[in-house]
Amino acid sequence: MGKDRSIYLKRDGQSRKQRFPEQLNPSFAKIYDRTEEEFLSFAAGYAKELRFFDLSNTASSDWSPFFQDGSEGQAGAITPHMALFRAFLLLFRHNLDHLNGLTGRHLEFYYSDVLRMERKGAVPDRVHLVFDLKKNSPDQMVKAGTLFKAGKDAAKKEVFYSLTEELIVTPARIGELRSVFVDPAGGAVYIAPVADSADGLGGPLDKNSPQWHPFGNAGLPVAEPGFALASPVLLMKEGTRKLTVILSLSGITAGEEFQKVRNIFDLYLTGEKGWIGPKPVSLSSAGEGRFSFDLILQPDEGAVVPFNQKKHGSGFETFSPVMQLLIKKEEAGKCAFFRDAVVQGVEIIVKVSGITGLMLENDLGRIEASRPFMPFGPQPEKGASL
After folding, report:
1. CA–CA separation, 175 vs 309, rounded Å?
2. Long-range pairs, 179-186, Cβ under 8 A, ≥24
3. Which of 192, 211, 287, 324 would suit a FRET pair with 18, their CA atoms being 20 to 30 Å apart?
């Protein structure tokens, strides 16, 4: 069920009759296929080749005059001898039908007696039903075996279809159709945010052929595959901020191929007005199965803040700042290297210098950091906090 079911169900296909080889039809090659009129024409032509001998045993002409009065077949205008000839042709048709049935009998003998193939039993017709609830109706259960009328067949008998499985009908609808296509050669990823459209982005379908690729294709927009991390440690308001991320990855090695793909990532951070980035980063090997990269944010590049759906989109479910590491679109053909990579662990290290706006608290409350203060109060005790 969807917004326009007529589009989803309309498709070019092939019926069972179209899949049946024409050559297997017993009537494909008839042994004798002349019609009655063709037989009369043949007889009239052949009569010109036969000499006619009269009662004096003289060959005066041929036999063609015998067929002239019966060639039109008009009622009341046919001679007795042509009536007998036409009656012979009508009876001869039974012999021809038997003769032309030889190919069918030969196929039957070959498949049944030689190959020993058995005929399958009758298979009931199957149809797909789409249920729609009336407005404001609760969910409805339709039991297996429920009969549905389907009109009458060619013999004027009522046709019924029986539900094969129990079904619960709900008002649920498909809100969006999306697809992802991965190029098997280079590993590039293509996406269709609106799969049921001409361009994958919502473009109108051809009215004469409203078709679309359900599993995507290489003509769709290029995606930016990658991953995201969310952590309170990314909350960085001011100063010069150095961010180091160490990734423990399985499925890849730091060999020659790694050197070709180490610079294909861009980094994004959640900022006050949207995403901060793209920031190019370069992966480096940090030991067996470990890879790292560094990023420095200058004081004038704004604060890294918690994720906000309205500002940042993307649909993350977190209240922490988010960091995205995405493969650049122009480097989409190099995705295959990371196809089998699995993140086993992540370590995030933040170093900040030039902080001026400190917010301090101890067990006694808020501390004014602009003048000297006692971090644990005038009478600190064991376990006191700052």
Report:
1. 20
2. 179/213, 179/214, 179/215, 179/216, 179/220, 180/216, 180/223, 181/213, 181/215, 181/216, 181/217, 181/218, 181/220, 182/335, 183/218, 183/333, 186/332, 186/333, 186/334, 186/335, 186/336
3. 211
pLDDT tens digits, one per residue of 276-312: 989 999 999 888 889 999 999 999 998 999 999 999 9
Contact partners, residue 343, CB within 8 Å, separation at least 6? 227, 247, 248, 249
Q: pTM score, two decimals?
A: 0.54
Q: pLDDT > 90: what percent of the chain?
A: 35
Which candidate, 36, 91, 44, places its Cα nearest to that of 63? 44
Tens digit of each residue's pLDDT (9 = 90 or more) over 124-151: 889 999 898 988 889 999 999 999 999 9
Q: Shortest CA distance to 280 belongs to which of 294, 266, 270, 269?
A: 266
Angle, alpha carbons 186-188-192 (nearest 5°): 150
From the CB of residue 241, how many other CB atoms can be counted at a distance below 10 Å?
23
Counted residue by residue, the chain has a size of 386
Q: What is the pLDDT of residues 321-338, one digit of tens each?
A: 999 999 888 888 888 888
